Amino acid sequence: MTQSLDRLADMPTAEDLYLRLLEGVRTLIKDLPQEQVHLVGILSGGAWLAERLQHDLKLPGAMGSLNISFYRDDFDRIGLHNQVTPSNIAFDVVDRHLIVVDDVLYTGRTIRAAMNELFDYGRPASVKLVVLIDRQERQLPICADFSAWQTAEASTGSVVLAKTEQGTFSLHIEPETPDA
What we know:
The chain is 25% helix and 26% strand. It has helices spanning 14-29, 45-57, 75-78, 109-120; strands at 37-42, 64-66, 97-105, 126-134, 146-150, 157-163, 169-175. Strand 6 and strand 7 (169-175) form a beta hairpin.
């Protein structure tokens, strides 16, 4: 379903999109051996989604999280975030089925960085990508195996996923800031 990004009021709520994502992941993993499936969330929004998916799907394997800061191809231009949380992959990725989870797929550069980091841990049996929102404006040949919402319309802002203390999700658009 492709819709306008600038008209956030017309978009389903983040909670509705999460339910779509949950069903999409359930479908993707239904024929895989559950003990070999691991969710890997990209910090921070993707990790929040992966935590909740892990709970709702009741997967037996550990969940992981990736901080791709050191793998970004624009590291020299934007620098390092002042609060770097380390990646946490506490399981052997070799011959496992990994489901990479992110909140927004935009240019594909974050996913490229995540793939580079994941393969530093070993060679998985498969890697699938699921996202809450696909903005469909790629700079690299990367696509999601499942997205809860798609938009092809350009926006002058960034879609931001927020998480409340109760664990519920919301979305808002932040205006883009010009490069310094």
